[in-house]
C-alpha cells in the first residue's frame, strides 16, 4: 500500500466519522455497524493481501490501542453521569442500585455461563473457557453510546437524561465499572494457564489480592488523583492554575493518564481508577460548564480511536480473523448475545424498584437493560492482555470467537438500539405526564 493511498484512506475514514452521526441520526442503524462494514469492504480490495492485521502477530499493538480506547471512553462515561455517588450517604448508594446488581449478580453469572458452556458443553480447555467468559462478560463503554447517557447536563438544562432515564443510567454506570471488575476473572484464566493456582494458598491469594485488594487500591488511587486535579482546576489558591476558569479541557486527558498510571504503579486496577477519577472530578462544582468542555474533548478523542479500532476489526474479519472460527465459537457468540447476558441481566434486576426520586424500572425496562449488553473494544483488550501474559494453545480460536461475537453484538444491538430506546422514551414521557396530571 502506497503512502498516498494511506492518506486517502485515513482522510476518507475521518470524513466518515464526521458525517456518520448526522446521516444515521434518524435511522435504525448505528455508526459501529457502518464502520465495521466499511472495514470489511476495504479488506476485500485487491491490495489487502499486502497488509495483514493478524491479532496474534500484532498483539502488543492491539493491546495498547484498545487499552487507550477504553481509558478514554471510561473518562467520558464518568464525566457524563449526572447522578452523584456520595460515599457517606446511604440514599446515594441506593440510587446506584442497578449498577451494583448488574455487577454483583449479572456479571459473575455471565462469566460463569460462558465458561461453563465453553468448557462443560463444548469441550474448550478450562483456562481458555474462563478467559472467554471474562473477556465477553463486561459491557462496552465504547460501542454502547446509543443506549447510554449523552453527556453532562447542568442546572437549567431541559433534558437531564440519566436522572430521568433509569435504563440509560443503568447501562452507563455498569459499563463504567465492569471493565475494571473483569480483571479478576482474566487474572484467574492467566493463573490457570500458567499453573499458578497451587492449592488453597493460591486461591486465597487470588481472592484476597486480585478480587479485593486491587479493586480497593484502584478506586482509592483514582479518587485521590481526581480530588487533587479538581481542587487544582476549581479551587487553586493561584488563579492562574484554575483551569476551569479559562476552560482548558485538556485536563481531562491528563486526568485519565495520571489516574491510570498511578493506579498501575501501586498495582491497582487502572480501569476502575479512571472511572473513579472522572466521578470525583465531576463531584466538585457539579454544575460547572467545565465538565461539558472536558467531556467534549474526550468524546472527540474517543471517536477517533473508535474509528481506528472498528475499521481495523472489520478489515481483520475479511482478511483472516475468522479463519479459526468453528461451530463452538458460533454457539458461544449467539448464546451470549441472545441468552446468557439477557438472562443474567434480568435475574440481577428481579425485584428491583427505584425510589420515587429516580423514577422506576418496570418489566420492559429491565428486559432492555438486560438485553443491551454490548460487547466490543474491552473484549479485544482482555484477550490481547491475557494471551501476552500466558500461553493459551487456543489463542487463534479465541480471537476468531471473540471477533465473531463482537461483530454479532454490533449488528444485533446496533439495529435494535434506536427503535427500542425511542419506544422506551415515549413510554417514559407518557408515564411522567400521567404522574404530573395525577399530582395536579
TrEMBL record:
InterPro entries: Cation/H_exchanger_TM (IPR006153). It comes from Phycicoccus sonneratiae. It comes from the Bacteria. Keywords: Antiport, Ion transport, Membrane, Transmembrane, Transmembrane helix, Transport. It is found in: Cell membrane. The keyword Iron-sulfur does not apply. This is Cation:proton antiporter. The keyword Transmembrane helix applies.
Amino acid at each position: 500500500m502506497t503512502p498516498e493511498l494511506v492518506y486517502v484512506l485515513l482522510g476518507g475514514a475521518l470524513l466518515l466519522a464526521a458525517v456518520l452521526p448526522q446521516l444515521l441520526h434518524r435511522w435504525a442503524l448505528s455508526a459501529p455497524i457502518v464502520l465495521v462494514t466499511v472495514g470489511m469492504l476495504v479488506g476485500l480490495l485487491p491490495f489487502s493481501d499486502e497488509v495483514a492485521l493478524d491479532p496474534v502477530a500484532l498483539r502488543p499493538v492491539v493491546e495498547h490501542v484498545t487499552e487507550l480506547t477504553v481509558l478514554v471512553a471510561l473518562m467520558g462515561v464518568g464525566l457524563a453521569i449526572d447522578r452523584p455517588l456520595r460515599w457517606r450517604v446511604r440514599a446515594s448508594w441506593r440510587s446506584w442500585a442497578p449498577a451494583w446488581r448488574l455487577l454483583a449478580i449479572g456479571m459473575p453469572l455471565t462469566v460463569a455461563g460462558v465458561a461453563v458452556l465453553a468448557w462443560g458443553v463444548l469441550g474448550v480447555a478450562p483456562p481458555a473457557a474462563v478467559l472467554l467468559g471474562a473477556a465477553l462478560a463486561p459491557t462496552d463503554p465504547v460501542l454502547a453510546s446509543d443506549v447510554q447517557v449523552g453527556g453532562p447536563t447542568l442546572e437549567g438544562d431541559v433534558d437531564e437524561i440519566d436522572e430521568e432515564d433509569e435504563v440509560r443510567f443503568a447501562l452507563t454506570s455498569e459499563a463504567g465499572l465492569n471493565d475494571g471488575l473483569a480483571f479478576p476473572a482474566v487474572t484467574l484464566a492467566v493463573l490457570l494457564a500458567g499453573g499458578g493456582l497451587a492449592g488453597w494458598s493460591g486461591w486465597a491469594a487470588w481472592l484476597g489480592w486480585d478480587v479485593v485488594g486491587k479493586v480497593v487500591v484502584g478506586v482509592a488511587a483514582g479518587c485521590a488523583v481526581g480530588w487533587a486535579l479538581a481542587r487544582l482546576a476549581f479551587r487553586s489558591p493561584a488563579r492562574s492554575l484554575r483551569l476551569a476558569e479559562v476552560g482548558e479541557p485538556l485536563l481531562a486527558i491528563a486526568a485519565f493518564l495520571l489516574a491510570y498510571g498511578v493506579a498501575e504503579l501501586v498495582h491497582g486496577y487502572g480501569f476502575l481508577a479512571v472511572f473513579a477519577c472522572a466521578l470525583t472530578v465531576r463531584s466538585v462544582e457539579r454544575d460547572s460548564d467545565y465538565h461539558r468542555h472536558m467531556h467534549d474533548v474526550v468524546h472527540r478523542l474517543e471517536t477517533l480511536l473508535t474509528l481506528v479500532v472498528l475499521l481495523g476489526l472489520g478489515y481483520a474479519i475479511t482478511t483472516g480473523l475468522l479463519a479459526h472460527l468453528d461451530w463452538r465459537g458460533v454457539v458461544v457468540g449467539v448464546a451470549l448475545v441472545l441468552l446468557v447476558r439477557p438472562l443474567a441481566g434480568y435475574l440481577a434486576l428481579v425485584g428491583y424498584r427505584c425510589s420515587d426520586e429516580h423514577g422506576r424500572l418496570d418489566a420492559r425496562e429491565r428486559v432492555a437493560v438486560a438485553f443491551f449488553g454490548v460487547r466490543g473494544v474491552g473484549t479485544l483488550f482482555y484477550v490481547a492482555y491475557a494471551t501476552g501474559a500466558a500461553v493459551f494453545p487456543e489463542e487463534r480460536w479465541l480471537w476468531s470467537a471473540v471477533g465473531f461475537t463482537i461483530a454479532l453484538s454490533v449488528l444485533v444491538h446496533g439495529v435494535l438500539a434506536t427503535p427500542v430506546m425511542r419506544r422506551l422514551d415515549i413510554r417514559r414521557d407518557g408515564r411522567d405526564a400521567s404522574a404530573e396530571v395525577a399530582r395536579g
